[in-house]
Amino acid sequence: MNLVANADDAGVDDPRNQGILRAARCGSVRSASLLAGFPAASSFVVDCRAVPALSVGLHFNITEGLPLVAGHRTLTGSDGRFLGKREAFRRALAGLLDEREVVRELEAQWLLAEMLLGQAPSHVDGHNHAHLFPGAAEALAGFLPERTWTRGVLPRPGCAAPPPAAESDPYACPAGLRAALESLTKRALDVGWRRFRLADRLEGLDLLESSSLEDYLRIIDSIPTGAGVVELMTHPGLCSTSSVPFSAAPGRERELATLCDPRLAERCRARGVDIKGFGDLS
Q1: What is the pLDDT confidence band of residue 236, given thresholds at 50, 70 and 90?
Q2: What is the pTM of this model?
Q3: Given this model, what pLDDT does residue 35 score?
Q4: Angle between the N-to-C axes of helices 213-222 and 262-270, in degrees from 0 to 180, rounded to the nearest 10
Q5: Alpha-carbon span 252 to 60, nearest angstrom
Q6: How far is CA 127 from CA 61, 84, 220, 281, in A?
Q7: Whose CA is closest to 35, among 27, 26, 44, 46?
Q8: Which residues pair with 4 in a beta bridge?
Q9: Is the distance from CB of 124 to CB of 140 less than 8 angstroms?
C-alpha cells in the first residue's frame, strides 16, 4: 500500500513552511500543496530544493486572501478579496460561481506554480476543498492535464452521502464535511473527473484539531491490506503570532511532532506501508 502524507498550505508564511519542511526531512511527509499566490510561496519552493524527495502540487485557492486575477465578480467581494469558504460554498451550490472566472484564476495559479517549481505541479487539490465546488469542479475538468492527481473523497463501501444543502455548513464538523465531500466528489466524477487520478481513500479530515500519535496509528491500523493509494491530509507547521489564525493554532506544532515521531514510521514499516509523494506514483 502507498501512503501519500500530503502537507497542505505551503506558502502561507515562513513558520508554516518550516514546519512542512521539517516533516519532510523526517521522511513522514513526501508531498506538499502550495498556495501559489500567498506571500511565502516562492521562499518555500527555494527551500524545498534541499528536500528533493518532496513532491509539490498546487493548493488551488478561491476562498481566502487575494486572487491573482483582477476583476472577478462572483469569486470576490467589494474589497477584491475572496469571500471565505462558507460564502463561496453557498454561492457554488446556488450556481452563482462563474466558471469562466474560476478557469482564469486556476490558470493563473497553475502557471505561477509551474514557474516557481520549474515544472508542472505534481498534483492539484483545493484550499478548503473548494476545487470540488460546483463551478470549480468543471473548471478543473476542462483545464488540468489528463491523469492529474487530484483530491476527492470516494465513499466507503456501503455508504452513500446525500447531496449537501446550500444552507448547511459543511465545515461545522468532520462527519458533515466528509459527507459533503463524498457527494461533491461523485458530482465531480460525473462532470469530467474520471480522466484524473484520485486516491482510493482520503484520511485526516477528522484530525484538524486532534492529531496525536494515537490518532495517526489508528488511521494506519484501520487501512485494509491492498487499499491501493491512501492520501493522508496533514497540516504541520510552526506557530507564529504573525501567522493566519489556522496556522497559528497549537495543533500545527502537535501535528508536526506526531509526524516526526519515529513510532509512526515504525508502524508504517510493520504494516507494509510505503510513504510516497504524488510525484513518485506512475
Answers
A1: very high
A2: 0.94
A3: 98
A4: 10
A5: 21
A6: 5, 10, 25, 23
A7: 44
A8: 231, 276
A9: yes
Q: What is the mean pLDDT of residues 166-172?
A: 79
Length of the chain: 282
What's the CATH class of domain 2-280?
alpha beta
Residue type, 135: G
Angle in degrees, CA 56, 118, 237, rounded to 5: 30
Q: What is the DSSP letter of 269?
A: H
Q: 160: exposed, middle or buried (C-beta count within 10 Å: 0-12, 13-18, 19+)?
A: exposed
- CB of 243 closer than 8 Å to CB of 12: yes
- Residue-wise pLDDT for 3-49, tens only, equals 999 999 999 999 999 999 999 999 999 999 999 999 999 999 999 99
Q: How confident is the model at residue 161 (pLDDT cuts 50, 70, 90)?
A: low
188 Cβ partners below 8 Å, 6+ apart? 132, 137, 140, 141, 152
Looking at residue 80, what is its pLDDT?
A: 96
Query: Chain centroid to CA 81: how far?
Result: 21
Q: How far apart are CA 56 and CA 120, in angstroms?
A: 9
Of 16, 19, 4, nearest to 256 by C-alpha is 19
H-helix segments, 150-243: 174-190, 213-222
Domain boundaries, the chain: 2-280
Report which DSSP code applies to 129: G
Cell numbers linked to 236 = 504541520
Q: Is the pLDDT of residue 166 over 70?
A: no
Q: Is 225 helix (H, G, I), strand (E, B) or coil?
A: coil
